[in-house]
Structures are given as structure tokens and as C-alpha cells.
Amino acid sequence: MIKPLHVDKLYNHCDLEIFDFQTTAELEELDEIIGQSRALKAISFGIGIKKEGYNLYAMGKLGSGKHSVVEKFIQSSAKDENKPDDWCYVNNFEDPRKPISLKLLPSIGIQLKNDMEELIEDLQGIIPSIFESQEYRDKQQSILNKLNEIKKRSFQEVK
């Protein structure tokens, strides 16, 4: 049978004098995970399996922090591991359906990406200016003059 609670049981007084802070905003964030020793052992075991095809699956209530716990643990463990190579795929101009893979040293992939973006940005400014230059116009006019001369001679030969 359900017993009604007495008012005294609904409230648990906490003496604020035992804390040496005013709000929890003053506290530093904890690095360790509290009260999840079984889960941490399972995560450690899971990420310790180095064979291909194994995955880590965390089950728990929505909002229980399982994703944060696993991510924090993996990031902490990854500091002790060798960084993997970067794999980048670039366009194959001869066969665009088959990109070319590049195996690069760790962190070089992002440098390549940034350098390529910078190159594209530079070329977007340089190429239009080339077509607007006097040198380009002179070459264009020279080619047109030669073409007109060839046309003129061809018509004269036909006459």
C-alpha cells in the first residue's frame, strides 16, 4: 500500500556554509567521469580492439550524457595514439569518375585543402585581369589581323 509522504520528507536542507563557492559557475570543469566505472571499462575495452569491423555502441536514455562520455573518453585515449595518415581525393581530369587518392602525412590534408582554396581565390582574381590586360588585347588583335590576312588571300585566290 502506498503511504503518503510527510512534509518533512519532501525537503532536504543543505547547509550552504559547507561550500566555498557561491555558484557552480565558479567551479572548474571536471576532467574525470564520475560513477560510470563499468561503462568506462567497456569503452576502454571497445576502443582497444584494433581489428577492422568492430564498432562501439553506447545505449542509454536520451540526454543521459552517453555521447559526451564516449567522445571525451575517445579523445583522451586518442592523445596516446599515433595520428593516422590523411587521405584526400582529388579530381582525375582524364577520368572524372575515378578520383585520385592521395595518402598524406597526418594534418597535411587540411593544409592541402587550405592551399587549394587559396590558389582558387588567387586565380579568380588573376585570370580575369589577364584577359583585361593590354598585352592580351595586343596578342588578340595580332591573331585577328593574321586571320583576316589569311581570309583576304583565300578570297583573292578564289577570284
Can I get a quick summary?
The protein has 159 residues and is mainly alpha-helical. The chain has helices at 37-48, 66-78, 108-131, 134-158, and strands spanning 86-90, 100-104. It has a domain at 83-154.
Describe this structure in words.
The protein has a domain at 83-154. The chain is mainly α and 159 residues long. It contains 4 helices and 2 strands, in the order ααββαα. The protein has a two-stranded antiparallel ribbon with strand order 1-2.
State the shape: elongated
Percent in strands = 5-15%
Sheet with most strands: 2 strands, antiparallel
Order of helices and strands: HHEEHH
Q: Which consecutive residue ranges, at least 5 long each, have pLDDT under 50?
A: none
Average pLDDT for all residues: 89
Query: How many separate helices?
Result: 4
Q: Indicate the structural class.
A: mainly alpha
| Computed Rg | 35 Å
Task: Give the key terms.
two-stranded antiparallel sheet, 47% helix
Question: Mind sketching the topology for me?
Answer:
Blueprint: H1 37-48, H2 66-78, E1 86-90, E2 100-104, H3 108-131, H4 134-158
Antiparallel strand pairs: 1-2
Helix pairs in contact: 1-2
